[in-house]
Design brief:
- By secondary structure, the protein is an alpha+beta fold.
- Helices cover 28% and strands 24% of the residues.
- Helix 2 crosses helix 4 and helix 3 packs antiparallel against helix 4.
- The chain is built from four helices and eight strands; from the N terminus they run H-E-E-H-H-E-E-E-E-H-E-E.
- The longest helix has 19 residues.
- A hairpin with a 5-residue loop joins strand 1 and strand 2.
- The protein has one domain: NADH Oxidase (3-Layer(aba) Sandwich), CATH 3.40.109.10.
- The structure holds flavin mononucleotide.
Amino acid sequence: MIRTIRHSLSMLLSLAALALVPASPSVTHAADKAVRMELPTPAKSGGMPLMQALNERHSSKMNYSGAALSPQQLSDLLWATWGVNRPDGRRTAPTAMNRQDVRLYVALENGVWLYDTGNALIRVLEGDWRAQMGGGSLTLLYAIPQANEWGGAHVGSLYQNAGLYCASSGLGNFVHVSGLHALDGKLPLPDGWKIFIIQTVGLLK
Ligand SMILES: Cc1cc2nc3c(=O)[nH]c(=O)nc-3n(C[C@H](O)[C@H](O)[C@H](O)COP(=O)(O)O)c2cc1C
């Protein structure tokens, strides 16, 4: 009897210890071979004061180490760029008539992923494509409907959000068109959509 109670207690303690392990990306394979990666909850406070981040925002075009961002940095970057910041589903950047018609993709060492504002990534393409798009730790790809006359303005808001997060976190970044078409015909975009511009982000040497 005592042994059973001890055994149950140690099981409970092990489960409690597991719950305390810091969140890291976990990859689950769905039946249709799509892969979903849950991200840690984004830190929605702290960071550098806004005026200081504005003062430090700049493009970095070299000296990337290529090392991966931490899961927390990745989650924070994506949330800052295009996350939901209100209970009604509105986001960190405005869109005309709140259509939210921008898709944010991120190229990591293990594929290209679509940002899901439910705080996850969904893999849409396998392979490491970062070298074709400027290197760094990752590439952000901004997709919009070709017919949306405001698409460029929307993307500009997003890449500025990302640039300010990078300034606040000491990460390098630059917006560019070199490698813009590297994934043409490979990335499964909705009909009539295109990648408008890309942004290299990364840890610096
Ligand atoms: C829409 C846009 C397109 C850009 N395209 C390129 C590019 O193709 N190649 C590049 O090296 N830099 C590119 N840049 C980065 C600019 O060269 C850089 O922002 C500019 O020199 C100002 O520097 P700063 O960002 O440090 O203020 C681009 C920036 C923007 C906003």
